[in-house]
Amino acid sequence: MSAGVIRVAGRWTRRMVLGAAVALGGAMAGLPAGVESLGPRAAMADEGEALDRVILTSGRVVEGRILEETAEAVRIMVMLAGIEAPATYSRSEVLKVERGVVKPAGGEAARGDDEEAADRADRVSGDGPVVYHLKLEGMLIPDTGISSFPPRPVIAPSTLTSALADAASFNPEVVVVEYDVAAAGGLGGVLLVEEYGAIVESFIEDGLRVVFWIEDAQGGASLLPFSSPEIFFQGGAELGGMGEVGEIDSGDEMVDKKLMSAALGHAVGMAIEGGYPPEIIRAMCVEANWLAVRFDRGRPEFIEHEPRSSDGEGWIVLTDDGEGQNADDETKLESNDVLNLTSDWAYRLGVSRGEFDQLDDLLWELGVDDDYVVEEGRGTAILESAADHVERTFDSFVRLQQELEDVGRGGAPRQLNILRRLSGLLAAQAEVLDPSGAARAQLEIQIEQLRDEIRRQNQRRR
Amino acid sequence: MNLLRHLVIALAVLAACVTTAFGSATIHLKDGRVLEGEIVRETDTFLFIRVMIGGVGKDELVLRSNIDRIEAAEAPATAPGDEMDELDRDAESEDAAASRDGAVRVAFITLEEMVGPFMFAPALSDSVEALEDDDVDVVILRFNSGGGALAEIEPLIEVIEDEIKPEYRVAAWIESAISAAAMTASICEEIYFMSEGNLGAATGFRQGGSGAESIAGRELEEVLRLMEGVSERGQKNPLVMRAMQVPTELSVDFTSDGRVVWRNDLEGEHIVATENDILTFDSQTAVKYQYARGVANSKDELMRQMGYSDWVEVGFDADEIQQRHREEVARGQTEIQKAFQLLQLSLASGDVVKAQRYLGQLKAWATRNEAFVKYNGLTDENLRQAEREIDRVRREQRRDRR
Fold it and tell me: Less crowded by CB within 10 Å, the N or C end of chain B?
């Protein structure tokens, strides 16, 4: 019996680095964390030489001299009560490593949460309002887990939560989310984005002013900004590419209609909560929908059918039904079967509140006082670090799968070991790679099968 | 009618959170600032007011939580059905005040995830039982589900109809009620939506090896008939639920006094559904067509909509039962599937000791929660079959040893 493998879609192979093993998750449990031993003070750094800083995922910041940095861990020499001590932190605990950024001031090198918070409070308690700038760049996770993986950095729901929580900790006047995000389109995109929308909405409900500043939003990700009442565009930005939500092939036309209806109900609900016209969402998601607009004292009025003489004059058709002569010619750039919003149209339709290329200009429009302080906090680091962990875990997973295949029959004990490691990797990034737990359950069964095989082999030998 | 309008405006001023309808207004903020202008966009949690600065209009975002009061420059236009709604709410308000001296006692029960294993009638019945000692007046069933098993709809409806309605005022509060969840919620006469809420897409289907297959023939007729009855008991036009189940022409006219008249064609003033689609209401359409009584994004808002200014939340144990049930089902589903597979594996390899152990685990799950029996195959018959299989392997092994 040969142990099966969970196959990974082959299209995402550019990061299949078969280098040194990247131990993560459960495998890191054996690594010593924190201070290893204390010793007499040695020369931590030459007088005036800048120290290094390790930012942990817990929010703790450790400063000292980095001794060793590997794929698995970071070792750093810290000062505790004037005594030098090496400390080791597993990569899964480390958010960011900054070298030579701290001027040694004597005394303790390791800084606790309180000190960090005090620093933050000092900054925040300055005269000017705080503006938190979060660059959200990447791809929302697919709902297919390990079987399909996106080619851009992954933004998991928990990562977005952490980044916004960091923003909230600064008590900012406004959080500007500079948004360059893609996601699958169609039905899957709609269902996927709802979870992220709920996160943004919960922070807004708690009083955080979250503003989306669109650089590019494609597929299901184009719906997420609607969770906020304030959207701005950058020049040349586009929001759209939802694709046809009705493009479902469940095998039954009636079921397709049901799924489309449900998905649209979710998408429209998000727009209504953000205060946007639901007609726009329907036009973004459904090819068959007509959308025409005219303006009454600058305010848009919509109809969702082909304009008739009884509707009056002045209608501009934004999307048609895509049928017959109305079908888009894919060889041409312009298309109007579904609505893709340019900066100009987003503004005219009341989706965008304006186009700004500079943060300063955007903040002026938002009414933020001139003496504002822009904070980037740890938001970007959180996003980058989380995406990096997922990517490395995925790489390790692919590599181990290959190893598993290479071992082949007769290497049962080694196969067993690899399967356990695969399961550990999935557990470490379960939210992205195995959200349902199904892949891990399958691995457990494979492990059990292999154990039986080993047991039988041993019995035969006796 | 003028008196009624003044009452509406007065309530809006007092609460500063009732929908204002677009128009000129003066907003007094809690920080002392006063904004005058035209309200150009609004939701239940915020609004935009267009203020004029140096002759240029600028839209200011104002969170409702920061508003002290709003003064409307003119009475808001009355939408069809609003007057009836306000009269209803007035009557409910009086009823609420008359029903007891102190605060109205309200229990919120969350009904979430898949109808069937997670939204399970016996578990709901347990929750209702837990309400008995709490002196509850009102039960709110908060729906957030993408649907599930048709087989659970009738049992759930029976619990709502026979155990909840006779004892308490009950309302469905919709975050999302798709398919079987929509069918279940429709038994409630009173339905309220959250802003993002949706309800509909109730087409029945089964997932076979060759893909999805919508129910048809006699099976479909039975479900359509069932839902006609449920709609009537929930005081709703059955055409609406039908349009959620199968493509149906559905349109609406409003009478002069704002009542909705449903039509099974496309000749009405407002087209609601056609033969090309399945109906799902969002919060705006649900309220517009009076399927829902209002939109509320918080418990406070919901209580105000239901006419209660003085209320207290009770019945926490009832909801905890639902939460515990859902957690147990989520945990159990994976474990049961695993134990089933491992049982088969053990039998295939002739390890009866292990097989017996996995069977023991499955029996324990079956005892722990009825939902596993109904929805995860842990029936007596299946478990006995597994026992017989283990006995067979054991007998074969004995025979081989002899």
Answer: C
CA B152 from centre of chain: 15
According to CATH, the topology of domain B99-314 is 2-enoyl-CoA Hydratase; Chain A, domain 1 (3.90.226)
Tokens of A363: 């903040």
A424's enclosing H/E stretch is helix A412-428
Q: Do A448 and B345 touch (CB under 8 A)?
A: yes
Residue of A205, A227, A254, A295 to mutate, testing the B interface (most B Cβ within 10 Å of its Cβ):
A254
Residue A196 host element (H or E): helix A186-205
Q: Cβ–Cβ of A252/B282 closer than 8 Å?
A: no
Interface test with B, best of A210, A231, A258 (most B CBs within 10 A): A258
pLDDT reported for residue A165: 93
Q: With contact defined as beta carbons under 8 Å apart, do A280 and A339 qualify? A: yes
Using the Cβ of B280 and the Cβ atoms of chain A, whether some distance falls under 8 Å is answered with yes
What is the amino acid identity at position B82?
Answer: D
A437–chain B Cβ distance below 8 A for any pair = yes
CB-based contact B212 A250, cutoff 8 Å: yes
Distance CA A137, CA B213 (A): 39
Q: What is the pLDDT of residues A322-364, one digit of tens each?
A: 666 666 555 544 566 778 899 999 999 999 999 999 999 999 9
DSSP β-ladder status, B311-314 and B211-214? unpaired
Q: Who's near A411: CB < 8 A, 6+ residues apart?
A: none
Highest-confidence segment of A101-115, A254-268, A312-326? A254-268
Tokens 């939340």 correspond to: B313
Residue A254 touches partner B, C-beta closer than 8 Å? yes
Q: Residues A79, A69: contact at Cβ < 8 Å? A: no
Q: How far is A434 from chain B (nearest CA, A)?
A: 13
Angstrom CA distances, B359 to A261, B314, B383, B387, B395, stand at: 42, 41, 7, 8, 17
Q: What one-character-per-residue DSSP string does B191-213 give?
A: EEE-TT-EEE----EEEETTEEE
Q: B2-72 domain in CATH 2.30.30.100? A: yes
Kindly report the nearest CA distance between residue A448 and chain B, in angstroms. Answer: 8
Chain A residues in contact with B146 by the CB 8 A cut-off are 262
pLDDT in tens, B35-64: 888 877 666 666 777 776 655 566 677 777
Q: What is the pLDDT of residue B57?
A: 64
Q: Give the closest residue to B196 by CA, choosing from B283, B79, B70, B76.
A: B283
Residue B176 in contact with partner chain A when CB distance is under 8 A: yes
Residues constituting chain A: 462
- Could you tell me if the ipTM is greater than 0.85? no
Q: What is the mean pLDDT of chain B?
A: 85
- Distance between CA atoms of A366 and A408, rounded to whole angstroms? 62
> Cβ of B102: how many Cβ atoms within 10 Å?
9
Query: Would you tell me which residues 438-457 of chain A have a C-beta closer than 8 angstroms to some C-beta of chain B?
Result: 438, 441, 444-445, 448-449, 452, 456
- Residue burial B166-195, b: 16+ Cβ < 10 Å; e: rest: eebbbbbbbbbbbbbbbbbbbbbebbbbbb
Give chain A positions within 8 Å (CB) of B247: 254, 257
- Is A128 an interface residue toward B (CB < 8 Å)? no
Residue A129 clears pLDDT 50, i.e. is over it: yes
- Residue in B48, B198, B211 closest to A251 by CB: B211
Rounded Cα distance between A13 and B158, Å, is 54
- Are A267 and A281 within 8 A, CB to CB? yes
Q: What is the DSSP letter of B178?
A: E
Distance in Å, alpha carbon of B269 to nearest chain A alpha carbon: 13
pLDDT of residue B167: 95
CB contact under 8 A, B43 and A229: yes
Name which of A323, A460, A313, A392 is nearest A22 in CA terms. Answer: A392
